[in-house]
Amino acid sequence: TIHSWSGIGIKERLTPYELDKIASSEHTAKRIRRTKILIIDEISMLGPETLSMVDAVCREVKQSTLPFGGLQVVFVGDFFQLPPVARSGEPKAQFVYESEAWEEAGFTICYLTEQFRQEDDAALSVLNEIRSGEISERSKEHLLSRHNVRSAKHKTSTKLFTHNIDVDTLNDTELDK
What we know:
This protein has helices at 2-6, 16-24, 26-34, 48-62, 100-105, 121-132, 137-145, 164-176; strands spanning 37-41, 72-76. By secondary structure, the protein is mainly alpha-helical.
């Protein structure tokens, strides 16, 4: 993950001492110095403070005032998806594009407009409406028509869980079989 790559781990903030300690780590510093292009996938899940810490570490290791120490940075993700997870008791998480590091870097934004994962036009329309938060009656009817419809091809349904422990329990049960 970007957390381990940059050496920040699970920290929420970096003190000057911690920044110096990370930059002094031979393993981390060598990895960052050898990097030419930093690609971060699922950028919508990264919080602004984390991006700022990665920026600070890269600048410190590369001894550069340029954003991310002069590394070429490529972010991939969809901000219509889930925002970063806020810790218990914290206010709603902010998106990474609200960070100073993002603003200072002056990224070029590229939007992909062609859909490759979905060939069913009706389903694609429903997904796009859900993504934008504006669901038409036609889409609602389409979703209701699929309620409890079983596929002859697929004997079991995909199960979604909100907690890892539930996923682990199901996985362990199936592995035991």
